[in-house]
Structure formats: structure tokens, C-alpha cells
Write a structure and sequence with these properties.
Blueprint (H helix, E strand, L loop, with lengths): L2 E7 L1 E7 L5 E7 L3 H9 L7 E5 L9 H9 L5 E4 L9 H14 L2 E4 L4 E2 L3 H34 L12 H12 L4 H8 L3 H8 L2
Parallel strand pairs: 1-4, 1-5, 5-6
Antiparallel strand pairs: 2-3, 6-7
Length: about 200
């Protein structure tokens, strides 16, 4: 049995206003040391910790995570500092946990105190799977309502229509429901830059 750790840090964009009033965007990379220290304290050896740097959790493919998953065998344990370091969404997290379960790999999240080797941890996995199914239904409903709103606002997929009060209101509503910017743009038939302008005028 081997205990593996996974850490992930992304980049963040900080907006700074220059003296002339123009805006400068500065990209800052987060530091993974806190996560790696926690994984070491949880029993992971340094050579068994895989860290993705400068990668968003929304990315489907992550080099270090892919390398780690290829090493896991039955009886191993995968440890993360926090659930959002591993899962892109609740749906992704539930699917990934199910894949680990089928492979006989245990999962631990230190911050949430989750351990699928324990009865409580396994029960939580079942809850996550149930909620993930509910999220699938919500995504489907959001997609349908978004397309209907786009048609009502006079937009068509693939075009970049003029902003309308209805379209702007729909974009803000979807964002308040944590719909990703790229999905809002797709549903309303505009670019992500347009959505940003609508939401942050």
C-alpha cells in the first residue's frame, strides 16, 4: 500500500490601476507549499506527492494528476488537502471517487476530514453521488432556459449580438448561480469578453 498526495495551485489575475487610469493585469502564481506540507504530515513521502502548478481546477487534463492516477493500484491511498484541489465540480468529484472505488483505491481529504475507508466517509461518497445526479439535472435545465432566453433576447448561436437588457439580466442571473463564464457565453451566443463587460460594466 502506498499513500500518494496530490496538490494543485492555479494562477490568479490581479487588476492594478496605473497612474494614468489604465488597468494593468498582473498574473500571480500561488504557492503549493502549504498543501505539500500538509500532505507530508499526512504520511506522504516527498517523491509520492504530485503537484500541478498554474493549472485551473476547470482543466480536464492535468499532467501531474494524470501521472498520479496512472500509478495507483488496489490498496493505495490518494490524499488531497482539500476537495476543490482535485475535483472540478461536484459532478466530476463524484465520478472520480467512483473510479477510485472501482480500482480499490481509498481517498482522503484532509480539510473536510473525509476518508472513504471509514463508514462515515463511504456514506459521504454516497451523498456526493446523489447530489451530483441532481446537479446533472440542474445543468440540463440551465442549458435549456439559457437557450430560450438567448432566443427571446434576439441572439443566435455563433453571432455576437448587441447587448439587450434581457441578455444582460440573464447573464447576471446565470453568473449568480455559479454557471461558468464560458458556458454563459456559449448559451447566449456571445464571447466571454462580452459576458465580462455585461456583468462588470
Amino acid at each position: 500500500m502506498t499513500t500518494y498526495g496530490y496538490a494543485r495551485v492555479s494562477t490568479e489575475t490581479v487588476r492594478k490601476t496605473r497612474p494614468d487610469g489604465s488597468v494593468e493585469r498582473v498574473i500571480k502564481r500561488q504557492d503549493p507549499k502549504m498543501q505539500e506540507d500538509a500532505l507530508l504530515a499526512a504520511g506522504c513521502l516527498p517523491e509520492n506527492i504530485f503537484t500541478d502548478k498554474g493549472i485551473s481546477g476547470a482543466k480536464a487534463r492535468r499532467p501531474q494528476l494524470d501521472a498520479l492516477l496512472s500509478k495507483l493500484v488496489k490498496g493505495d491511498v490518494l490524499v488531497v488537502w482539500k476537495l476543490d484541489r482535485w475535483g472540478r465540480s461536484l459532478l466530476h468529484l463524484a465520478n472520480a471517487l467512483e473510479d477510485l472505488r472501482k480500482r480499490g483505491v481509498a481517498f482522503r481529504s484532509l480539510t473536510e476530514n473525509i476518508d472513504t475507508n471509514s463508514p462515515c466517509g463511504y456514506m459521504l461518497f454516497g451523498i456526493l453521488a446523489t447530489v451530483a445526479g441532481f446537479e446533472r439535472s440542474l445543468i440540463s435545465e440551465r442549458t435549456k432556459s439559457g437557450m430560450a432566453a438567448a432566443r427571446a433576447a434576439g441572439s443566435r448561436q455563433g453571432n455576437n449580438p448587441k447587448a439587450t437588457p434581457e441578455g444582460i439580466a440573464k447573464a447576471k442571473q446565470m453568473r449568480s448561480e455559479n454557471v461558468p463564464m464560458s458556458e454563459i457565453a456559449r448559451q447566449l451566443g456571445v464571447t466571454r469578453a462580452t459576458v465580462y463587460r455585461w456583468i462588470n460594466p
